[in-house]
Design goal:
71% of the residues lie in helices and 0% in strands. Mean pLDDT is 77; it is low at 102-109 and 112-116. The protein has helices at 4-16, 20-42, 52-65, 74-97, 121-137, 139-150, 155-162, 166-188. It has one domain (4-188). The protein contains 8 helices and no strands. The chain is an all-alpha fold. α1 (4-16) packs across α2 (20-42) and α2 crosses α4.
Length: 189
Amino acid sequence: MVDPEDQTSELLRSIKEGGASASEGLFDALYEELHGLAQRVRHGRAGETMGTTALVHEAYIKLVSGKGLDPESRLHFFRTAARVMRQVLVDAARRKLAGKRGGDFFPVTFDDALHPGPLPAAKLLSLDGAMDRLAAVDPRAAQVVECRFFAGLTVEETASALAIAPRTVKRDWRVARALLTAELAEEQG
């Protein structure tokens, strides 16, 4: 049986070398996992900006057509995919809100059990802005949020993806949640 890590690494190498069929092979090999990742990225957070399948396809096209795709591992590839999916959702939310403003109050939390439903596009944009400001102050904490909140990675997977200790992930996760929650609460006024 072929190890998924080895198969993914080989396909990624082939893509970097210009292998035209490698991109399709990678998509076929990882489709189910990318679809699951898209569901985690969207679940309770993305509103009605884009369907899961459309998100997978658009994000994958951005991933393989963009310059600089050089993942170190399968886990790094999925972390990058989660970031691209977030960017695709934010772009879709911006398009949806063009010309619209306002909306009902809907708090953003970082506790999955408290998400009563999809996050409206306006709130997704607020969260994205808060993430950008967090990244300016503490880039590693922002990466931890991307891994934990958007990609749905565990503490251990996040530690592996970022090459840091699980204890550091937990600390950065606590700090980032506190900063983002405070900033979003202040923004809601």
